[in-house]
Amino acid sequence: MTATMNWGSIGSVRPFPLFQPEKKVSDLQAALEQKDVSTLVRILTNHSNDQRQSLAETYRSVTHQDLSVRLKTVLNGDLEVLILDLMMTPEQFEAQRLRRAMEGLGTDEETLLEILCLRSQEHLSNLAAVYTKEYQRDLENDLTSETSGDFRQLLLALLKKQQVPEDVDLDVKILCEELNNSKPDITPWIKILTMRDPDHLRSVLIHLAAERGQPVSAEIEKHFGGLFNIRLGLQTLVLSIEDPYLYLAQRIQPMKKSLVQGVLMSHCEEDLLAVRVAFKKHTGESLYSTIQDKFQGDIQQIFLALCRCED
């Protein structure tokens, strides 16, 4: 995720043209005084994250108050949570998603996999630094304490992604040999799928599927059987390599609010247009219309603003 979204990206949210932070801060002040929630939502969702950060800085300069703290006095419930999340930087928001996936009882393995599988090593390194700054905790240590066994090994390898050059045919041969073993071994899968560049991995998966005569995810399903977390981790990783936009479309298809929020906020300035295309191709319905059907009120307004338009 880059700090500055450009007009050539496939993100749905674009910078507000002719941005005047002082004028927008004046509008925000008026909306806050009048407790005009609709105007607050409209202003904050019609600007890019960089522009929202600029609004927060300008608001602090003009009023000597923290905008997020002030917003808390007007908002409540789910809307308060969504708006305060919008006021975070992208890195802060994803760090929060990781923390929430691990705190309390149980671990949200799928959210951990979503972020670790999709993000580059450089991005994850920056994210780990933000995680430490925000929570005074070490991301690697938390992953280690919250997971175990081969699944832990996979997550830690994803966190430290490397790119070691290798021959596609050799990688295919190694994975074919592993699939022929009666006792599953995740080690070669981790070594190959977390230590190659994306183009190389796509070639490996295409050739492996051709060699085995069925999709790689189906091979993993059969080979790793009852090893649920390992099977989930490898299948998620494979799909995120083969088609990350389809993976995200499938992830939000159930329309669970936290999942939709996570994907919309994390990808609206990066590649949500591609996710929208994949969603419509996969489900037969547009993401925009589906959000209209499944949500209502201010939550719907925010999600639609991030989605942006009908396909």
Description:
- This protein has 311 residues and is mainly alpha-helical.
- The chain folds into four domains: 21-77, Annexin (Annexin V, domain 1), CATH 1.10.220; 91-147, Orthogonal Bundle (Annexin V, domain 1), CATH 1.10.220; 168-242, Orthogonal Bundle (Annexin V, domain 1), CATH 1.10.220; 245-307, Annexin (Annexin V, domain 1, Orthogonal Bundle), CATH 1.10.220.10.
- Helices cover 71% and strands 0% of the residues.
- It has helices spanning 21-34, 37-45, 49-63, 67-72, 77-86, 90-102, 109-118, 121-135, 139-146, 149-159, 168-179, 187-193, 198-212, 216-224, 228-242, 244-252, 257-267, 272-283, 287-294, 297-307.
- Helix 7 packs parallel to helix 15 (228-242) and helix 15 packs across helix 16.
- The protein starts with 20 loop residues before the first helix and ends with a helix.
Summarize the entry for a quick read.
The chain has 311 residues and is mainly alpha-helical. The chain has 20 helices and no strands.
